[in-house]
Amino acid sequence: MIIGDTIVAAATPFGYSGIAVIRLSGPEATKIINQISTQNSFNNRVATIASLKNLSGETVDQALVTCFFSPESYTGEDVVEISTHGNPAIINEVLGVATDLGARLAEPGEFTYRAFINGKMDLVQAEAVAALIHSKSEESAKIQQKILSGDLSLVLNQTRSSLINLISTLEHQMDISEEEASGELGVSFVENIDGLQTQTQSLLGTFEMGQLFNRGISVVISGAPNVGKSSLFNLIANTDRAIVSDQPGTTRDVIDVEVIISGVPVRFFDTAGIRETGDAIEKEGVGRALEKKLSADIVVLVYDDPSQKPIIRDENNKTIFVLNKLDLHHNRDNKGVIHISCVENEGVGRLFEKIKQTINIKKASADTTYLSTERQFASLSACSRFLQSSKNLLSVQPVDLELVAFELCEALGSIDVLLGKTTAEDIINNIFKSLCVGK
Amino acid sequence: MIIGDTIVAAATPFGYSGIAVIRLSGPEATKIINQISTQNSFNNRVATIASLKNLSGETVDQALVTCFFSPESYTGEDVVEISTHGNPAIINEVLGVATDLGARLAEPGEFTYRAFINGKMDLVQAEAVAALIHSKSEESAKIQQKILSGDLSLVLNQTRSSLINLISTLEHQMDISEEEASGELGVSFVENIDGLQTQTQSLLGTFEMGQLFNRGISVVISGAPNVGKSSLFNLIANTDRAIVSDQPGTTRDVIDVEVIISGVPVRFFDTAGIRETGDAIEKEGVGRALEKKLSADIVVLVYDDPSQKPIIRDENNKTIFVLNKLDLHHNRDNKGVIHISCVENEGVGRLFEKIKQTINIKKASADTTYLSTERQFASLSACSRFLQSSKNLLSVQPVDLELVAFELCEALGSIDVLLGKTTAEDIINNIFKSLCVGK
Question: Are residues B118 and B21 in the same domain?
Answer without folding.
Answer: yes
